[in-house]
């Protein structure tokens, strides 16, 4: 699938024999696996190979059968088009009967093969293999759920591929959420002849969260928290479940941040939001350090020291500001040291990246804590792609919630950080609400 | 004013040693100074001291008329006396001048009682040694936040129009808040390098309930990194020119339009710096600075709202160097607060925000003097006014006026409180027209006061014939007041809402400053003399009238008397050119009924009912007005069985009768009139001072004793007389009892505006809504 924004014809080489890079394991947690290098080999154009079969009659028959079973026809996608990333979940049926196999149109097969046999698509598309859910039963069908993402700015390439593959001939409903479902609706129609079924992103988010938490019975727990958040040496990830989660403060950190108070599956409100989110972290890091990807920015942050950039309470008061119960280590002014020319000249890019991460994370923590107090909620669930491979921020949030609330608030996290909206969209396809 | 150059202060503070200070204008009254306090910030030093000011006051003393009638036919004697009053001085200057200033203070400090100087602010530590060496005073450090809060309480309580709302696109950018006597509880959001959010519940009870590390230091530090611009105010300049939408990811960038479901508009920022997450695009400094400013302002605003909501507070004041006098940050913070609270909470700013720390430190050191038991008043003559040195307001202005900003506050002899009869003290606005908002009116009145200046100078000189240097002082007065008028033309908001009252008060302050405490003393004396001679005749002719005729004649008398007014230009011209202009002539000049505002019929109906328990009468001018107009009216009230409290100015203002003068006049009238005599003797006629020295009237700042008397006597009628008190101020004042406002419009422009003509009459009798008067049939209050 050509997810790259650069449609170079010489990339369009089919490599049907490419070995899937890694098989997911459901028995234990997968190590984090990145594929952010351009991978021209995987940038196949299955669409071109199948283009001569676009008028296949079997699609009609297939759809007819599915309707009888009150199931939507394959393929089953859920899509969340955010400000920075497009999140796509794909259900790969594993219980396809011989008869079905025979009836299955070539288009569909090639899509399935392409998606499941690669882990990277084009220059920027990634399948988060470690998140794959296997042996899932959805709508009476058994299969695996795949989690794929690519940058929103590469959406035109995705649409081009959809057009080339005649995705529209499958007559499937494409359930999409996120702002992009609205913004790109006409592009989907014009470029790929696809009609989007637009869904509200917060409805999808909540549905997705509750669903994924409920299905994970085997394998690593979806939900976890950090034990001993105050002690870096003993701070460990512990599994838990979202049993009796309500009321719940759901903090979705994407490009920006939305904070929801959830009282039941279909009773929630958006409390507030902030524009200081993942997009701000990356945007500022790019400007300050010249990096260009989230992974690069995180890598730099992991090596930096924010206290060289930030002005701490002890920098001003020599120690704790006891009158107001402020510990000396607390940040008094983010980037406060950067008011001084000498200090500006002495910090490294890594320090700046770290300070940016700490600033944004603490601010989210601070706003979250105030919302929790105002809404009288003690359980806080952090989700969103800002937390992807970002243990630093998660531990900071866990610590901030614990410290400033004196243990009252508990920070919870979910493994599928940024995919809940897309999962919610898929569920809408299968079980329209 | 920006606390800029924090990082460079080491180099710059030695640089300006050669500067020569204009001493008599900046460190005034140093010879009597005691109790110093200093607040040294990142770039600005604020010095506070207490001093006593000796100035002349006009006193009147009655001659002993029984012994000899020969004292030149004069009713009383006027003398100029020296009086000592207390004043607080606050001076703000750049840290660069600190050494020069300390030297200057050292050289001029005579008082040796002072042993310590209270210090606060981040720079107090750095300059401790220098201060101790230069001044020989021990530096006693005070907690910054405590000082800030103390200072904040002080200005909120003592300075009318201290707090304002900032509205960038309104006719007037500054909307000043009326002083609410109940200042607690409030939230103070101090945006320094970080943010502190403090809940203040009472004078001594406050708590830092939260804060944020994203503050002014973040804007400055991150801004410097992003734009390579070093100075804080330059960063703000950049920001004011930028377009944030090229850097920020807006809702419409994600949705293509608005997010209708949640009511989020398309222009809302979804992700600050969301568009700069790329390596291959350049962004302008201006755009990045703007985006940063929005990000930080919105964040602070949001947190402030969350804290305000959690603690159920609706008054939120913003201060700190991020805010200090910068329209750009005041605007973004205001915007943020409006957005997050949907207009439920207003962002409030303070005119003297930069002085809070110094004021607080000073108060800490002066606790034994109990400064909080007094009322203090801003001295317009000695204070620079808002944004006098703001760089981004007017760079030229800054260069001209130098870098010294001043605030002076006079200790008022009397403690001032609300009139207990105000219907809603928190919404009471004394002034009828806010000249800050009304540009044509502002034009007119500034012109008017400028035109009148020559006459005021002339009279000031004439009032002190025995003093040869009076002419020189009068000239200084002219310069000072003209300069104030010019400042106000440029910055109408400099001293809070610009009003006719503030223009008059500023003139009085300037006159006092140059020792012209009472330019009208001799004129008043002469007029009082003349009027007294007619008193008995006037009363006699009134007594010959039928009841109904008499009531009307009394009202006409008050109105005609009120035509005698040196404060109004049209009248002072006539009086000056034709001293024979008499009482009868004035009556002829009056408009015939129906008057411009006319509820005389209702008043008459009311008079047919039972008498009032007690009437509070705010009197106006000396001479014919008080003696032939007001006194017969008072006499009638007393005869009806109504007690009367006559409230007159504590100190002189124009030709208004002062309490001192009124005491003598009333005694003289009592000697001729048994009704007045009995009133005084039986304690049914009281003379009380108002606490004011203004030709106008602020019912929220009245003498505490007056308020007490009003309460004790169960006052059920308030009479306000004259243009200054009943038209320029209090025209719309709502009282909880019956009120009567009487005035003659002696200014053709104002008459025009009100739809009348010169000498139109306002007779406004009001009964509070929802308080029908049971005793007097069916009349509808106007």
UniProtKB/TrEMBL annotation, chain A:
The keyword ATP-binding applies. It comes from the Eukaryota. GO terms for biological process: coenzyme A biosynthetic process; nervous system development; vasculature development. It is an enzyme of class 2 (transferase). Residues 60-71 have a biased composition (Basic residues). One of its GO terms (molecular function) is ATP binding. Residues 1-73 are annotated as: Disordered. Its EC number is 2.7.1.33. Keywords: ATP-binding, Coenzyme A biosynthesis, Cytoplasm, Kinase, Nucleotide-binding, Phosphoprotein, Transferase. One of its GO terms (cellular component) is cytosol. InterPro entries: ATPase_NBD, Type_II_PanK. Residues 39-48 have a biased composition (Polar residues). It is found in: Cytoplasm. Its main location: cytoplasm. Residues 24-38 have a biased composition (Basic and acidic residues). Pfam families: Fumble. It catalyses: (R)-pantothenate + ATP = (R)-4'-phosphopantothenate + ADP + H(+). Pathway: Cofactor biosynthesis; coenzyme A biosynthesis; CoA from (R)-pantothenate: step 1/5. PANTHER family: PANTOTHENATE KINASE (PTHR12280), PANTOTHENATE KINASE 2, MITOCHONDRIAL (PTHR12280:SF25). Homodimer. Belongs to the type II pantothenate kinase family. This is pantothenate kinase. It comes from Oreochromis niloticus (Nile tilapia).
UniProtKB/TrEMBL annotation, chain B:
The keyword Hydrolase applies. GO terms for biological process: coenzyme A biosynthetic process. Residues 449-757 form the Damage-control phosphatase ARMT1-like metal-binding domain. GO terms for cellular component: cytosol; nucleus. Coiled coil: none annotated. Keywords: Acetylation, ATP-binding, Coenzyme A biosynthesis, Cytoplasm, Hydrolase, Manganese, Metal-binding, Nickel, Nitration, Nucleotide-binding, Phosphoprotein. It catalyses: (R)-4'-phospho-S-sulfopantetheine + H2O = (R)-S-sulfopantetheine + phosphate; (R)-4'-phosphopantetheine sulfonate + H2O = (R)-pantetheine sulfonate + phosphate; (R)-4'-phosphopantetheine + H2O = (R)-pantetheine + phosphate. It is found in: Cytoplasm. One of its GO terms (molecular function) is metal ion binding. Its cofactor is Mn(2+); Ni(2+). Homodimer. Interacts with PKM. Phosphatase which shows a preference for 4'-phosphopantetheine and its oxidatively damaged forms (sulfonate or S-sulfonate), providing strong indirect evidence that the phosphatase activity pre-empts damage in the coenzyme A (CoA) pathway. Hydrolyzing excess 4'-phosphopantetheine could constitute a directed overflow mechanism to prevent its oxidation to the S-sulfonate, sulfonate, or other forms. Hydrolyzing 4'-phosphopantetheine sulfonate or S-sulfonate would forestall their conversion to inactive forms of CoA and acyl carrier protein. Belongs to the type II pantothenate kinase family. This is 4'-phosphopantetheine phosphatase. It comes from Oreochromis niloticus (Nile tilapia). The gene is PANK4.
């Amino acid at each position: 699938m050509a997810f790259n924004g650069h449609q170079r014809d010489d990339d369009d080489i089919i490599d049907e024999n490419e070995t899937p890079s890694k098989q997911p394991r459901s028995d234990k947690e997968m190590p984090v696996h990145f594929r952010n290098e351009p991978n021209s080999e995987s940038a196949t154009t299955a669409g071109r190979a199948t283009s001569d079969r676009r008028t296949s009659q079997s699609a009609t028959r297939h759809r007819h059968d599915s309707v009888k079973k009150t199931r939507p026809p394959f393929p089953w996608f859920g899509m969340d088009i955010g400000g920075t990333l497009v999140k796509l979940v794909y259900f790969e049926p594993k219980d396809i009967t011989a008869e079905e196999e025979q009836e299955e149109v070539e288009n569909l097969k090639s899509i399935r093969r392409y998606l499941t046999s690669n882990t990277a698509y084009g220059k920027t598309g990634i399948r988060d293999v470690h998140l794959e859910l296997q042996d899932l039963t959805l709508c009476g069908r058994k299969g695996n759920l795949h989690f794929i993402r690519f940058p929103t700015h590469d959406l035109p390439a995705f649409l081009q591929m959809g057009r080339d593959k005649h995705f529209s001939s499958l007559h499937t409903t494409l359930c999409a959420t996120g702002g992009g479902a609205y913004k790109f609706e006409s592009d989907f129609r014009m470029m790929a002849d696809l009609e989007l079924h637009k869904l509200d992103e917060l409805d999808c988010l909540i549905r997705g969260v509750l669903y994924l938490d409920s299905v994970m019975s085997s394998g690593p727990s979806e939900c976890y928290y950090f034990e001993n958040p105050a002690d870096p040496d003993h701070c460990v990830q512990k599994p838990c479940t979202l049993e009796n989660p309500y009321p719940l403060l759901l903090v979705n950190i994407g490009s920006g941040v939305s904070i929801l108070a959830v009282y039941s599956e279909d009773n929630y409100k958006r409390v507030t939001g902030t524009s200081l989110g993942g997009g701000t972290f990356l945007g500022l890091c790019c400007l300050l350090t010249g990096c260009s990807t989230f992974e690069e920015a995180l890598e730099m942050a992991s090596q930096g020291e924010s206290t060289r950039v930030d002005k701490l309470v002890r920098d001003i008061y020599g120690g704790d500001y006891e009158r107001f119960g402020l510990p000396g280590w607390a940040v008094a002014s983010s980037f406060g040291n950067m008011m001084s020319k000498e200090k500006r000249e002495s910090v490294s890019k890594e320090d700046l990246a770290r300070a940016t991460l700490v600033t944004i994370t603490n601010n989210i923590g601070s706003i979250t804590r105030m919302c929790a107090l105002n809404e009288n909620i003690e359980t806080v669930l952090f989700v969103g792609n800002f937390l992807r491979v970002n243990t630093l921020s998660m531990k900071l949030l866990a610590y901030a919630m614990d410290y400033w609330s004196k243990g009252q608030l508990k920070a919870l996290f979910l493994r599928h950080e940024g995919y809940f909206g897309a999962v919610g969209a898929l569920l809408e396809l299968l079980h329209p609400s | 004013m920006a606390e800029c150059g924090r990082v460079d202060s080491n180099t710059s503070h030695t640089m300006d040693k050669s500067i020569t200070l204009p001493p008599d204008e900046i460190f005034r009254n140093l010879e009597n100074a005691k109790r110093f306090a200093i607040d040294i910030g990142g770039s600005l030093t604020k010095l506070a001291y207490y001093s006593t000011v000796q100035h002349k006051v006009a006193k009147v003393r009655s001659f002993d008329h029984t012994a000899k009638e020969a004292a030149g036919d004069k009713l009383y004697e006027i003398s100029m006396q020296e009086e000592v009053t207390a004043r607080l001085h606050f001076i703000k200057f750049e840290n660069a001048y600190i050494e020069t200033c300390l030297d200057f203070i050292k050289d001029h400090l005579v008082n040796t009682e002072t042993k310590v100087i209270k210090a606060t602010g981040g720079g107090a530590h750095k300059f401790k040694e220098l201060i101790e060496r230069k001044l020989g005073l021990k530096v006693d450090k005070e907690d910054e936040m405590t000082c800030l809060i103390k200072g904040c309480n002080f200005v909120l309580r003592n300075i009318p129009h201290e707090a304002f709302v900032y509205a960038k696109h309104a006719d007037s950018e500054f909307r000043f808040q009326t002083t609410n006597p109940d200042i607690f509880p409030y939230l103070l959001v101090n945006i320094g390098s970080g943010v502190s959010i403090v809940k203040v519940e009472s004078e001594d009870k406050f708590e830092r309930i939260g804060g944020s590390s994203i503050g002014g230091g973040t804007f400055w530090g991150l801004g410097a990194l992003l734009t390579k611009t070093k100075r804080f105010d330059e960063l703000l300049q950049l920001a004011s020119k930028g377009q944030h939408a090229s850097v920020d990811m807006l809702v419409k960038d994600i949705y293509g339009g608005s997010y209708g479901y949640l009511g989020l508009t398309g222009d809302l920022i979804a992700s600050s710096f969301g568009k700069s997450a790329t390596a291959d695009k350049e962004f302008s400094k201006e755009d990045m600075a703007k985006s940063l400013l929005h990000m930080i302002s919105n964040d602070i605003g949001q947190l402030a709202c969350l804290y305000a909501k959690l603690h159920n507070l609706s008054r939120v004041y913003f201060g700190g160097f991020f805010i200090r006098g910068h329209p750009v940050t005041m605007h973004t913070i205001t915007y943020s607060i409006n957005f997050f609270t949907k207009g439920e909470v207003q962002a409030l700013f303070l005119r003297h925000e930069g002085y809070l720390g110094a004021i607080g430190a000073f108060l800490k050191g002066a606790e034994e003097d109990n400064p909080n038991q007094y009322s203090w008043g801003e001295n317009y003559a000695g204070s620079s006014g808002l944004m006098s040195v703001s760089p981004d307001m007017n760079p030229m202005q800054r260069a001209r006026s130098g870098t010294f900003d001043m605030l002076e506050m006079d200790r008022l002899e009397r403690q001032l409180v609300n009139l207990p009869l105000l219907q809603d003290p928190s919404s009471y606005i004394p002034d009828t027209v806010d000249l800050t908002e009304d540009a044509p009116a502002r034009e007119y009145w500034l012109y008017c006061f400028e035109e009148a200046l020559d006459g005021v100078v002339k009279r000031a000189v004439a009032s002190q014939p025995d003093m040869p240097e009076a002419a020189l002082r009068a000239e200084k007065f002219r310069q000072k007041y003209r300069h104030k008028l010019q400042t106000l033309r440029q910055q109408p908001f400099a001293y809070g809402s610009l009003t006719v009252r503030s223009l008059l008060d500023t003139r009085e302050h300037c006159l006092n400053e140059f020792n012209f405490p009472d330019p009208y003393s001799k004129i008043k004396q002469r007029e009082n003399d003349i009027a007294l001679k007619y008193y008995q005749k006037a009363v006699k002719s009134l007594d010959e009238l039928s009841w109904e005729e008499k009531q009307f004649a009394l009202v006409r008398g008050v109105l005609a008397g009120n035509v005698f007014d040196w404060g109004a230009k049209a009248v002072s011209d006539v009086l000056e050119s034709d001293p024979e202009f008499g009482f009868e002539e004035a009556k002829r000049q009056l408009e015939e009924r129906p008057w411009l505002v006319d509820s005389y019929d209702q008043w008459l109906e009311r008079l047919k009912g039972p008498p009032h328990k007690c009437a509070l009468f705010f009197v106006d001018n000396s001479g014919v007005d008080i003696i032939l107009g007001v006194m017969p009216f008072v006499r009638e009230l007393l005869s009806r069985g109504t007690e009367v409290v006559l409230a007159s100015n504590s100190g002189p203002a124009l030709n208004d009768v002062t309490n001192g003068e009124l005491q003598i006049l009333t005694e003289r009238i009592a000697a001729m009139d048994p009704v007045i005599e009995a009133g005084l003797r039986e304690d049914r006629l009281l003379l009380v001072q108002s606490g004011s020295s203004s030709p106008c009237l602020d019912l929220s700042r009245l003498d505490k004793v007056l308020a007490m008397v009003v309460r004790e006597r169960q006052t059920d009628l308030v009479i306000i007389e004259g243009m200054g008190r009943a038209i320029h101020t209090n025209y719309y004042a709502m009282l909880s009892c019956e009120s009567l406002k009487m005035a003659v419009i002696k200014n053709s422009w104002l008459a025009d505006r009100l739809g009348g003509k010169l000498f139109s009459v306002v007779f406004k009798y009001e009964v509070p809504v929802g308080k029908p008067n049971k005793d007097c049939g069916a009349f509808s209050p106007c």
